[in-house]
Amino acid sequence: MCLVAIAWKAHPDFPLLISANRDEVFHRPTSPLHRWDSGIFAGKDLQGGGTWIGFHPDGKWALLTNYRDYTQKRNPKISRGKLVLDFLESDLTPENYLDKIWEKKSEFDGFNLLVSDGDKLYYASNYGDSPMEVPQGIHGLSNGLLNDPWPKTELAKNQLSELMSERPNQEQLLQTLKSTATFPPETLPKTGAPLPLEVGLSAQFIRIQPDYGTVSSTAVLRSGSGFTQLTERTFDWDYRSFKDQNINFQP
């Protein structure tokens, strides 16, 4: 994922709401949201073998964004997508899993990782301080640290906040994070990207020629009973059409 807004225990009826965009090159081989042989629900990066967001039938979930830093070239030994997959397929608690990951954080390219057992939510980044528990509230994550005030991240949090006074549905969540507006250079983070690229990446919904942009969006609704609704909307390269994958489950 490259832009995420999360309402964590902030809505009276839905302890978990997620709206997220995945930005990627359009030709990267990917399987859409489906149930894996191991039982988890996720899309699959067929190149790296992992995933960017996934859910276990027992209520565990995890998601990942890249940390953007063009100033420091890393030599990763392990695909970042394995961070989500390994947590979902393990028996470790979020705290224990992040402690394990923290010991080898240098083996990954820059990442932001959120992991939850359904009751507690934890965050870690190999560009940040030690792993931390995430408090209830509305949180935003892009390619900086959790809740870094990037313009599109702040907009994402505001968009999700506007849904807190009603009972949102999947389509409402999917319609957030869709702004194509870019922001003035003086408001943007300094990630080492060339300025034209930094400006292009400042939009919520990205299309950078010839083949990079927002390839899919994900909406997650989890009720107090644990009933979870997942929708992944995958876009055609020219954004003239899309396809939805829907999965519902009860832990």
UniProtKB/TrEMBL annotation:
InterPro entries: TANGO2. It comes from the Bacteria. PANTHER family: SER/THR-RICH PROTEIN T10 IN DGCR REGION, TRANSPORT AND GOLGI ORGANIZATION PROTEIN 2 HOMOLOG. This is NRDE family protein. It comes from Algoriphagus aquatilis. The lineage of its organism: Bacteria, Pseudomonadati, Bacteroidota, Cytophagia, Cytophagales.
